[in-house]
């Protein structure tokens, strides 16, 4: 699809209109926004330009803290995502952490190819690890498109588990006054609809909890 906005100047023109429109509805809109944020949601999604989760869930500025990277990966050596997560659970005290992938994900597709893509192959190795964990199920799917779609889902599930494996997230879940929930979503670009994968962390913990559970520090 071709981009609707093609010139750099249009971004500023649109921004001025957007700011004026908000001021027209509420003259104190930006004054109130500048006082601080208390979002209930953290979203970790793909950088893909077709996945505008904040734009399709009705959330307004201030409602959702956001981290995006190629193929919505939660890597425990990535200072960026760890910092976002720590701030979200310890300072903002979000109640929902959502990992959102999407079908037609170029990152997931690239991770299934054997040709080189440069530096990003090292990032996409995280997704190859997901494939390795689930290769029996994935290799049994003969249709390449269906196999890609399933890997998109499994990647979301494993990255959500990765969130739950983080020490300070485990502490926050134990100490939280309100429940802290971890969700996995997949966005279907063809329909514009989000699917909740209804990740069952309790069952996963029953199986793997003895390996990843760290106890309160
Ligand atoms: Co993607």
Question: How would you describe the overall organization of this protein?
Answer:
- Helices cover 50% and strands 14% of the residues.
- The protein has ten helices and five strands.
- The protein has helices spanning 8-25, 29-33, 53-56, 79-92, 106-111, 120-133, 135-139, 144-164, 167-175, 201-212, and strands at 41-46, 64-69, 96-102, 181-188, 193-196.
- It has a five-stranded mixed beta sheet.
- Cobalt (II) ion binds at residues 46, 48, 71, 102, 105-107.
Largest sheet: 5 strands, mixed
> Ions, cofactors, ligands: which are bound?
cobalt (II) ion
Structural class: alpha/beta
Distance between the termini: 50 Å
Integer average pLDDT: 94
What overall geometry do the principal axes of the alpha carbons give? globular
Q: Write down how many β-strands occur, each being a DSSP E stretch of 2 or more residues.
A: 5
User: Could you spell the SSE succession in H and E letters?
Assistant: HHEHEHEHHHHHEEH
- Stretches where pLDDT is under 50 for at least 5 consecutive residues are none
- The portion of residues forming beta strands comes to 5-15%
* Helix proportion range: 40-55%
Q: Give me the side-by-side strand order of the main sheet.
A: 2-1-3-4-5
Taking Cα atoms only, what radius of gyration do you get, to the nearest Å?
19 Å
Continuous helix count: 10
């Amino acid at each position: 699809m071709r981009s609707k906005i093609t010139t750099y100047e249009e971004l500023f023109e649109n921004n001025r209109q957007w700011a004026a429109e908000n001021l027209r509805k509420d003259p104190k809109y930006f004054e109130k926004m500048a006082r601080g944020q208390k979002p209930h949601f953290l979203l970790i999604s793909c950088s893909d330009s077709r996945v505008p989760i904040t734009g399709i869930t009705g959330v307004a500025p201030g409602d959702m803290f956001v981290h995006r990277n190629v193929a919505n990966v939660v890597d425990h050596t990535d200072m960026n995502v760890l910092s976002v997560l720590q701030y979200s659970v310890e300072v903002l005290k979000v109640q929902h952490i959502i990992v959102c992938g999407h079908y037609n994900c170029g990152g997931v597709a690239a991770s299934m190819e054997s040709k080189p893509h440069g530096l990003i192959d090292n990032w996409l190795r995280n997704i190859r690890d997901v494939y390795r964990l689930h290769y029996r199920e994935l290799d049994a799917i003969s249709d390449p498109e269906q196999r890609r779609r399933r890997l998109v889902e499994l990647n979301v599930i494993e990255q959500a588990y990765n969130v739950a494996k983080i020490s300070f997230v485990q502490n926050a879940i134990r100490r939280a006054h309100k429940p802290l929930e971890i969700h996995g979503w997949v966005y279907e670009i063809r329909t514009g609809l989000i699917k909740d994968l209804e990740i069952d962390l309790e069952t996963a913990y029953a199986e793997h909890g003895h390996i990843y559970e760290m106890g309160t520090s």
